[in-house]
Specification:
The protein is mainly α and 71 residues long. The chain has a domain of 32 residues. The chain is 62% helix and 0% strand.
Length: 71
């Protein structure tokens, strides 16, 4: 099936699917970018909260504050 209009070139179904797929990928990348920015902003605000707290004077007070998680 060909779709044509005015002075536009005709587009078949496979080209339409490619355009639709590209549009979905673009919107997905935009959402990922917004989520990444939100994560960066929340990390920045939480680091300011942590820096405002008094430092621990002994080693045992800081034990367990850093947790390494590998996925």
């Amino acid at each position: 099936m060909d779709i044509s209009g005015g002075g536009l070139p005709s587009i078949d179904n496979s080209q339409g699917a490619q355009v639709y797929s590209a549009a979905l990928a673009k919107s997905h990348q935009k959402l990922e970018g917004e989520a990444a920015l939100a994560l960066i902003q929340s990390a920045a605000s939480s680091s300011q909260i942590v820096s405002n707290q008094p430092s621990a004077s002994s080693v045992t007070a800081t034990l367990g504050q850093n947790i390494n998680i590998r996925v």
